[in-house]
Write a structure and sequence with these properties.
The protein is mainly α and about 100 residues long. Helix content is about 90%, strand content about 0%. It has one domain. The chain is elongated, with a radius of gyration of 23 Å.
């Protein structure tokens, strides 16, 4: 038990040192990486939503689905966009 305590104290003192923080990149690097991931996920969601709506429009045009299905697809895409807006708000609340 004492060994674990000593190791954890040594690790915490190492992580608190300015040299360790400079070598890792600190909070700015993590925030920048988070922004890049968020931008990539938004782009992926946008491309997926566009492909989904094109698919539904094609299926409705060829009468394999109804135009009401296309309308519901638009509603689902709006909900997905609302979720991303909610995630953006939540992200900004914690940063």
């Amino acid at each position: 038990m004492q060994l674990i305590r000593n190791l954890s104290l040594a690790l915490m003192s190492l992580m608190a040192s300015p040299a360790f923080a400079a070598s890792v990149g600190g909070l700015d690097k993590a925030k920048s990486l988070g922004e890049e991931i968020k931008t990539g996920l938004y782009a992926l969601l946008g491309v997926g939503a566009t492909i989904y709506l094109i698919y539904l429009a094609f299926m409705a045009f060829t009468e394999k689905k109804t135009w009401a299905d296309f309308g519901w697809g638009v509603v689902y895409v709006c909900i997905a966009g609302g979720v991303t807006a909610l995630a953006t708000w939540a992200w900004s609340a914690f940063t």
